């Protein structure tokens, strides 16, 4: 039995690229066959944790629907096309549009998996660089944009996002996150469940605010329903207690935190009863949470999608950080700290701190942030005639038809483009509109390093993964496609193309120059070579205080009262005073499931089998009031559109709130996703409204959407 088969079997260690938890995997393979995928117990960050999605890496790799060679859409259907012809054609067509109508007639959209692929991070922006188009969009503006804005305004850099130190805290206050399903976000926290258990065993507590009694609520020490979109009122209520009861203890932060008293004066002027009534949580409860938070030796406040993609998203994330600052928990072990990643994308000469509002969208005048525009404006930029109208689109690893507000409108807009090319592994709801689909290698066919997620991790570690399989003959990696297109487009536009080092060369330089790098004489002496020798990854220690040095404002201060946010607070307060109670209106929120990932993991039979997970959830009393039976098909309507979907009664819902996951809606014609099409579901984003924004940042409002529901 030990003979030939055993000899041909090998064990490979690599990072899972599917979600932000970046778990270490142990993959056993024989030849081209994946035998098993398990958690890597020796990984210093994930410590053996894994979720059911990891095995989907095998399913994606082997999926017959996954594209392996470029496709061109012709009158006679999709036809194969060689790489050189495909890249030449893409460059020629983008150049044609840019020459005829100006560079801004060519737009680009970059989706979420780019962030899980370091070659896409280093080379993605180079694909259309020759055009210098300002029409750049990404999934950031349906996601974490408020985190970046707050980092930029308060700490001076868009990537300076404080991370809750779950391994040492005594009190974790969580707003609108469901790490039991999502495995954590803007907080890389693999094995959340056991980290939480350890905290609870130390006597620590987790308090959660969510309009649904979620999987995370089940393991929290306390859960409170909150009316969707009203977290700012709750957070201001907490700060009101802290400032009026003299519980603020910024401690050493006082030496370099500017403007806290300015904010405190504004907050003291608010009416705590009105704040409580607005969010639906009692004054006493808010006061008790504030006192417990302020009274804990080590506490951290953290908020995620529930507060990021809502009307007051940026205000909420500012208030969360003010809570950490006012109680002295920012930059304190067990509080919320900045990481010190091995490739330091913050403290490096190439780093971009960010900017805001330097230009605006043509149609609605929405502000740019860090060089990108809000994706809620993409469809109107395509559909509205006039100089500067978008006529060509490049997408890379994105599915905006299912993932951005009013996806049905974008679906129509994409059909009207003069040219579209997509770098993607599937022919899906978005890429079916492309004239060219350029599929890269599978994630298992290239190397991996988490340039982004180490920046947001609850512990400093570093890990490099070799490719598991050789690159198939003739295939290209994402970065090679970007480079190939970039060089050809530069040629067509008559601009010089600077050859750019391969991703592993950039990584090596970043590791060497980084805080643990060989170039800094650090004992770890990190380099790519050093990491190659340690496939489980290296432990670089717990998060450590780093302020004020790490602040990116030139004067090394924390700006507690940026004018943009003070103005936003005033706007919120004015609206609160004017607000009529919206009794009876139903609010729609989102949901994630452990066995799904955004819009693109529904073609794995193994993951989608079992009970359907795409239903609308509503409280039984809300169903009874409408005379709707559990399991019935219902019509959900919003200003933007309508969908028909099955409803399930759920006592875990807050009355007046309905929950629908996004990323479904695979029933559209021309999609090549055999498994997903058999169980298509409805798309949340056929309901979400491109006109509803967190107005300060331009981030989409995907939670708290007003809808009506009736029997279909
Ligand atoms: N209503 C609602 N909408 C939401 C959200 C929500 O909570 N509610 N969440 C938002 C969030 S947080 C996000 S991040 C966005 C995601 O929005 P998007 O990034 O636009 O969409 P994804 O569903 O992640 O689609 C990823 C695409 O990348 C392709 N892909 C996968 N791997 C690779 C690869 O290695 N290379 C290439 N080139 N392509 C690849 C897939 O086939 C798919 O087409 O959705 C947002 N939309
Ligand atoms: N299994 C799985 N894991 C994933 C993903 C996935 O699709 N599936 N996607 C990945 C991505 S791209 C991201 S960005 C992360 C997101 O990670 P999380 O933010 O942790 O995930 P969500 O499920 O969107 O959690 C948002 C929670 O906010 C609640 N909520 C909605 N509206 C409000 C509100 O107004 N106030 C408050 N307080 N709560 C509200 C919702 O009920 C929900 O429980 O997950 C990542 N991980
Ligand atoms: S939690 Fe699951 S999907 Fe996320 S990185 Fe870990 S194994 Fe992969
Ligand atoms: Mo996301």
In words, what does this structure look like?
With 712 residues, the chain is of the alpha/beta class. Among the domains are: 145-338 and 548-570, Dimethylsulfoxide Reductase, domain 2 (3-Layer(aba) Sandwich), CATH 3.40.228; 579-711, Barwin-like endoglucanases (Beta Barrel). Helix content is 30%, strand content 18%. A 7-stranded mixed beta sheet has the order 5-4-19-18-17-6-7, with helices on one face. Strands 25-29-26-28-27-32 form a 6-stranded mixed beta barrel. The protein has a 4-stranded parallel beta sheet with strand order 11-10-9-13, sandwiched between helices. A hairpin with a 2-residue loop joins β2 (24-30) and β3. α3 (83-101) packs across α18, α9 packs across α12 and α9 runs parallel beside α14. The longest helix is centred in the first third of the chain and has 19 residues, at 83-101. The chain starts with a helix and ends with a strand. 57% of the residues are buried. The mean pLDDT is 97. The structure holds ligand MGD (2 copies), iron/sulfur cluster and molybdenum atom (MO). Residues 16, 18-19, 21-23, 50-51, 53-54, 183, 190 line the site of iron/sulfur cluster.
